[in-house]
Structure formats: structure tokens, C-alpha cells
Amino acid sequence: MTKPSAPKRHLPTSPFRAPVTPVPKQFAVGDQVTHDVYGLGRVIGIEEGIAAFVDFGSVRERILSPYTKMSKL
Fold first, then answer.
1. Residue 27 in contact with residue 43, Cβ under 8 Å?
2. Are strands 32-35 and 39-47 parallel, antiparallel or unpaired?
3. In the β-sheet with 51-55, what is the strand arrangement from edge to edge?
4. Would you place residue 11 in the very low, low, confident or very high pLDDT band (cuts 50, 70, 90)?
5. What is the tens place of the pLDDT at every residue in 52-63?
6. How many Å apart are CA 10 and CA 16, to the nearest integer?
7. What is the DSSP letter of 4?
8. If DSSP codes are grouped into helix, strand and coil, which group holds residue 39?
9. What pLDDT does residue 2 have?
10. Are residues 28 and 46 in contact, defined by beta-carbon separation less than 8 angstroms?
11. Measuring CA to CA, which residue among 15, 5, 11, 62 is closest to residue 38?
């Protein structure tokens, strides 16, 4: 069994920029959203930092954080 590797650290002398941690997306109940797979929807519930419940009209889905395929309109 292999151990998970630690994240690589950025060396101050590196000619490359330090990796940027993306800011987590924030949604609130009532926000209109679009999803790459499900289309347009409205947020109907939030599990803080974990998931958002979204009503897409024909289906209700629990979309997990970090919401890579979902954006606020």
C-alpha cells in the first residue's frame, strides 16, 4: 500500500508562480444557477461547505462542493 504524497511546496527561487488556491463558490437559497449537465436551476437548500440542493425543474439534485460544473447567474 502506498502512502498519499504530500503537496509539493513552492520554492522561493522558482521562476514559476506559486499555485493559487481557488476561492470556494458560495451559493444561497433562492440563487439562480446554471449547471453543465442539468442546465438552469434554483438553489432550494444548502449544506454549508458540503453541498447545495438544486431544483432543475424536471429533477432535484444534490450538487457537491466545490461546484466545479455550477455557476451563479
1. yes
2. antiparallel
3. 60-64, 51-55, 39-47, 32-35, 70-72
4. confident
5. 999 999 999 999
6. 9
7. P
8. strand
9. 63
10. yes
11. 62
DSSP-based three-state secondary structure for 32: strand
Residues recorded for the chain: 73
Peptide bond into 24 cis (omega under 30): no
Q: Select from 33, 35, 53 the least CA-distant residue to 44.
A: 53
pLDDT in tens, 28-46: 999 999 999 999 999 999 9
Provide the 3-class DSSP secondary structure of residue 43.
strand
Q: Which residue has the cell 437559497?
A: 29
Of 71, 27, 24, nearest to 47 by C-alpha is 27
pLDDT at 32: 98
